[in-house]
Amino acid sequence: MQTQSLASQLLKKTLSDYIDESFLFVDPITNADLSDHCFSNSDTWLFKEMSCNGNQAYLWPTKPNKHYKNVVLFLPKSKEKAIWLVEQLKSFLPTKTIIYFVGENKGGIKSSAKLFANHLDKITKVASGKHCVLLRGELNDTQAQPYHFVESNYDVKGKTVKVASLPGVFSHKELDHGTQLLLENLPANISGKVLDFACGCGVIGSFIKKYHPACEIDLCDIDSLAVESSKQTLKINELVGSVVISDGLMKISSNYQWIFSNPPFHTGIKIDYHISERFIKDCKSVLTSNGRLYIVANRFLKYAQILQDHFNKVDVVAEDNKFKVYCAYNR
Q1: Where are the alpha helices (DSSP H) in 42-128?
Q2: Where is this chain's protein located in or outside the cell (predicted)?
Q3: Rounded Cα gap, residues 325 and 295, in angstroms
Q4: In the prediction, which pLDDT does 53 show?
Q5: At 234, phi and psi to the nearest 5?
Q6: What is the pLDDT of residue 317?
Q7: How far apart are CA 133 and CA 289, in angstroms?
Q8: Which residues, at least 6 apart from 294, have a Cβ–Cβ distance to it below 8 Å?
Q9: Are 113 and 119 a contacting pair, CB within 8 Å?
Q10: Contact 235, 210 (CB under 8 A)
Q11: What is the predicted pLDDT for the residue at 272?
Q12: What is the band of 266 on the pLDDT scale with cuts at 50, 70, 90?
């Protein structure tokens, strides 16, 4: 069961007496962050699939349809995404709307005043504690930039694929080294139904579909920016595939011959094996009897044992000094 993040605990301590329907909370870290009754009258703008106990929840790309006096932004790991989120808020909120932003010290919150200096006025520190800082400012009148996808061309041993991505999405602007190692070592006989889990910008699924066109590709991710990026990646490559937003495999009902993934191992800025452990355990219910799971992971992560707990055959098909590519299946 997830617990409230440290940032959420500081919000509860500092703002609980003031939170009402005039508040909008943006991009909470975990399901538990807004579970306390003090948040129950406020609205939430979500950027990932999660349940929410507040008054009204909006999942991007849907925008809130009200004007709020106060907005609370959970500072994301990606600073580029943080600025992008403020620009999205500017697209529907008036100048001088109060913006609170909160995060952990080791997540970069102490430098966030400088980060937002072009977008917020009157930035001041409100509170600190729980190894976190809460600040506030006011939206200024600088023009918000409309969001657009960044397009890149990624090369894997002479085979290229176009990728569209948004800030904070995995492999944004640069192909992750682990993903490259996985794509360089794909099996030659991919066919049938294929799932790209935690698809990010859709590079794995789109690459497979482009060079193994007979397969049927599905992609899923918990993050709504990733889902929209993957849809755009398929579009610019003129490929057909299904993309769904899903917390783990909860919305996946098909059976697959192949599952490929560079699975996430962070919740916020903390290492969290729970996501990948649950994914690996649940894979058995969506793989065919002779299906294969391919994942790539940092060498320091304890994936070999987790895979061996749920599959009776685990092979290392490729490795370098940073990553390992595993293939897991049942004989």
Answers
A1: 79-90, 112-115
A2: Cytoplasm
A3: 6
A4: 74
A5: -60, -45
A6: 96
A7: 50
A8: 182, 186, 187, 258, 259, 260, 261, 317, 325, 326, 327
A9: no
A10: no
A11: 63
A12: very low
Report yes or no: 322 and 299 within 8 Å, Cβ to Cβ: yes
pTM for the whole structure: 0.94
pLDDT for 160: 97
Q: Which two tokens stand for residue 318?
A: 């490729």
pLDDT in tens, 138-163: 999 998 888 899 999 999 999 999 99
Domain with residues 150-329, CATH architecture: 3-Layer(aba) Sandwich (3.40)
Q: What is the spatial distance between Cα 100 and Cα 84, in angstroms, rounded to a whole number?
A: 15
Q: φ, ψ for residue 157 (rounded to 5)?
A: 50, 45
Question: Are the folds of 6-139 and 150-329 the same?
Answer: yes
Distance of CA 320 to the CA centre of its chain: 26
Cα(267)–Cα(275) distance, integer angstroms: 9
Tell how far CA 272 is from the center of its chain.
Answer: 14
Q: pLDDT-derived band of residue 299, with 50, 70 and 90 as boundaries?
A: confident
Q: Has domain 6-139 been given CATH number 3.40.50.150? A: yes
